[in-house]
Amino acid sequence: MTQSGSVEQTSRHQELGLTDDQAIDMYTKMKLARAFDERCLLLQRAGKINFHVSGIGQEAAQVGAAFALDRDQDYYLPYYRDYGFVLSVGMTMRELMLSVFAKAEDPNSGGRQMPGHFGSKRLRIVTGSSPVTTQVPHAVGLALAAKMKRKPFVSFVTFGEGSSNQGDFHEGANFAGVHKLPVILMCENNQYAISTPLHKQISGRISDRAAGYGFPGVRVDGNDLLAVYEAVKQARERAVAGEGPTLIEAMMYRISPHSTSDNDLMYRTKEEVDEHRDKDGIAKFRQYMIDCGIWSEEQEQTLLGRIREIVDDATAYGDAAPFPAPEDILLHVYGDQDGEGRA
Amino acid sequence: MPQIDYIEAIRQAMAEEMARDEDVFVLGEDVGHKGGVFTTTKGLLAQFGEERVMDTPLAESAIAGVAIGAAMYGMKPIAEMQYSDFMFPATNQIISEAAKIRYRSNNDWTCPVVIRAPIGGGIFGGLYHSQCPESVFFGTPGLKIVAPYSAYDAKGLLKAAVRDADPVLFFEHKKCYKLVTGEVPDDDYIVPIGKANVLREGEDLTVIGYSLPLHYTMEAAAELEQEGISAHVLDLRTLQPLDKDAILSAVRKTGKVLIIHEDNKTGGVGAEVAAIIAEELLYELDAPIMRLTPPDVPAMPINPPGEKFYMLNKDKVKKAMQQLALY
């Protein structure tokens, strides 16, 4: 504590067991994710990359969740907007940019998949696909492996509110509930499934669905970094104690269009978006840090400068990196020697 | 060498692989206390316990998806689909996920899962307990597909599938379970995936197929031998990847080829086998490539005359073989 006024009173992040440095680190990860996202939108508009799918407005929940996990052993199944999450569990800005530019060195897929389709065995980020929600049963399978092998890890899976309508969500949640598996399911409810608003997707509350599967479901303010941290931390404690899964519904708003191929003003108004922009979890946490006396405008400027350097470096690196050799598309169909695809 | 049923061979393969490797486990509907609706997993729960012989909720996409997740961790799950007709809810998990996990992660993640499913009819199962789904999955690179004909192959191919580093669909014909018996070693062996097998040497025509219809073929070939027609019979054993060299040399041997299977004719495995032959051996053929399959109707009916009309049998196969031999 550097501010005299808060010497006697413990701040919220400290109550949750987070140090000031960790709070600052979380803020940094959110800012990195936002800066990456904004750079990608720019790169796409400039014609440098083909496509970007944005996570702007969802960083607080993503970073809050990641910091609540055991980042040395848990397994993660993030969905395609989770830049804040993957940056928090060890993916670097360069690695993200390599994916955006679809370069050979991209650890996620070697330039094969769209950006946002994360995967890294080294970081225990489980490879994902585009048909939504298939990752939920996978997370349950990893949790089953944890239980069978008596390992203390948990699996953590995210998905959108639209995805929560897929059979795989329900089948996976039910399986996890029956076997009391150490899995945390977090819905990033950003109010839109591409153009379709929440009220046309769901008539009840997503968090209430957990009751049907016999485990707790909690709704939390996804713009509140520390609230999400707390919810995921509790869910993890339950999981490792053998008490089974938890469903967390983090409420947020998708500030950006669905992707760079989407014109969101076809289905929502600028006023609506602006209203939510004012509730941004990043700005909210910066104010919190200032109020706690652990952050200053000077520190903010220093951080912005550093992030600019990181993003510039990664952009240049990703842009300059070589593409895979064209014929490399034939590789890794199967693992055995005859496993190459036939042209 | 002990003489055992096809279904016992499958059961033995699972028991041996589970004993050999503690990461191997079985999951599916009714596989535990009941031992499976066909008794394929009978006795496994008593031997290995509930955790490794897991009764799952009735939800095929979760059975496949959970198995895939566990496989990505390094487990070796054998997921049972109760009937292949009920496998379609899991198709997205199989085609979009299992088949592409190695490829899409650029060889970082792997998915060594086995998905077993009983195929085929002739058991008065009607439309939804009789189908052959091979063609739905065939043509999806990243998947391996095997369909054993004999008890020996059933055991050896399943053991190979469990040890394979990639996803394998194991299509066992439910009519073979008790009908087919054979000599099966009780020691450890595998039948390699990707290798076809010559069931019979012959000079006049070649029959290529897999699974149950080859039993009709072998009976027909024995009778035709008496009539002076000598048939060469190739069992594909693995549908994907196809053993192209074995197909070509089997056809080259006689210059006449009949391709048979119980799955639909249009878009079936036989269409691809025919295309391979046409691409490579057109000028070595002495007759047009011939296919014998059930008719292209959605699925077979439960009424006995209708089912009999649909299914292949020894007489239908023999007639087709005669026709081709006399061409």
Relevant terms:
heterodimer, A: 343 residues, Rossmann fold, five-stranded parallel beta sheet, two-stranded antiparallel ribbon, 43% helix, B: alpha/beta, globular
Notes on the protein architecture:
The complex is a heterodimer of chains A (343) and B (327). Chain A has 343 residues and is an alpha/beta fold. Chain A has 13 helices and seven strands. Chain A has a single domain, classed as Rossmann fold (3-Layer(aba) Sandwich), CATH 3.40.50.970. A five-stranded parallel beta sheet of chain A has the order 1-2-3-7-6, sandwiched between helices. Chain A has a two-stranded antiparallel sheet with strand order 4-5. Chain B has two domains: 3-183, Thiamin diphosphate (ThDP)-binding fold, Pyr/PP domains (Rossmann fold, 3-Layer(aba) Sandwich); 197-325, Rossmann fold (3-Layer(aba) Sandwich). Chain B has 13 helices and 14 strands. In chain B, strands 3-2-4-5-7-6-12 form a seven-stranded mixed beta sheet, sandwiched between helices. In chain B, helix 3 (60-73) runs parallel beside helix 4 and helix 9 (213-226) crosses helix 13. Chain B is globular, with a radius of gyration of 19 Å. The N and C termini of chain B lie far apart (42 Å).
